[in-house]
Amino acid sequence: MVINTNVGAIRASRALSESTGRMNTALARLASGSRIVSPADDAGGLAVASKFDAQINRNRAVQNNLTSALSYSQTQDGFLQKVSKALDRMSELATLSLDVTKSSSDVADYGTEFADLKNYISDIGLKDFNGLSLFGMTGIAVTKDSDGDTWNLNGRHLNGSDLASVLSIDVTYSLAVATLSSAIESVASHRAEVGSNIQRLQFTNEQVGLLNENLQRSVSRIKDVDVATESTQFSRYNILVQSGTAMLAQANLLPQLTLRLIT
């Protein structure tokens, strides 16, 4: 029996310190909901999760870009619908003006409406979306993934050769009906291109969203704490801390037994 070195108390103190540290770790995990409270908990897992988190944030930015491009294309389609409707009416006016029973005054009235519709179409060709021309640009690049890769939207100038020929005629032009029919077909093709843009943008947005879902699932497996398991560990170490504290108190009483030898 010795007094200066209490080996039992030293061992009990070490065990108590370890149990306390593990209990505090379990408590921190339960409080934060994260399995990785500090890098030492899982250095490799933290590196992978950090990389995935960065990719998730980039994907969200990509989705924002895709949403803007989708709004741009939908605005294009909305204007093209109006252009198509205006061309339909212009072709109707051109056909009505061919009626030999119509007086020159009647034809002039048709011409007034025809001219207004031409101005309307010409104005639409100059519209923009947040400063970006809706119909005066082609090959607009859109971000499609978190690596910064892009693809170009289908498109053409609205006031191209077909519509330009429409804007240069009047209701009495002999080939007005044929010119307008060609323009109507051109606008229909333009709408088909815009429609394909909208479809691809929607599919790409869904694809990026699905990728983010899977990335978040992977991050969850790495970082999120299993509450049931960690609660069990916390209860275990809590009991060990309490018993370790009691045993340390008992170990500290052992040197007092030497007094019996002295007395």
CATH class category of the largest domain: Mainly Alpha
Mean pLDDT level: 89
For the record, what is the CATH homologous superfamily label of the largest domain?
f41 fragment of flagellin, N-terminal domain
Q: Over the alpha carbons, how many angstroms does the gyration radius reach? A: 39 Å
Q: Order of SSEs, N→C? A: HHHEEEEHHHH
Neighbour order of strands in the largest sheet: 1-2
Distance between the termini: 15 Å
CATH level-3 fold name of the largest domain:
f41 fragment of flagellin, N-terminal domain
Largest sheet: 2 strands, antiparallel
Total beta strands: 4
- Give the count of structural domains: 2
Oligomeric assembly: single chain
Provide the helix percentage: over 70%
CATH architecture of the largest domain: Up-down Bundle
Which word captures the global form? rod-shaped
Number of helices: 7
Q: Structural class, please?
A: mainly alpha
Beta-strand content bin:
under 5%
List low-confidence stretches.
none
